[in-house]
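Let's practice the habit of predicting before peeking. Look at the sequence and jot down your guess about where helices and strands might fall. Then scroll down.
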Amino acid sequence: MNTEEFLKRYKTNKSAIWIRCKLTNGEEFNIDKHDEWIDLKKKCESERLYFSELYLQFKSHKETVDIEDSDGIYIVKSVIGKMGGETRHYFTTGKVKNSKVDKKMWITPELIIDKEYEDEIENCFEEAIIYDKTEKN
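Done guessing? Here is the structure:
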């Protein structure tokens, strides 16, 4: 992935958790606002594109998101809190396979996996899923 292009965008928001990806057509995206994920979903659907690479990044800490053999990818911001206790912020990523989603909850900003579990696709936010609609699928 093009580090120079990322650094240009990074300088505009150094405190962001970045979604960095490369699509099957070679285009690269550096997303610092989750709304841009929705726009990327529309692009992938209309142009029948998918991911060849996907990462989460905070400052120089970059983590690979597993997309191997997936029917779709799920990314959403999430929060877990308890009364009188600490609130933790997460990015939840998931690999869609058939009607299941293998989820990983990354504590932010550290990008450390805190929880991993399998979920039913109907328990996921549909707008956060980008399906592989390339010719092979």
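How did you do? Residues 56 and 62 are 6 Å apart (CA to CA).
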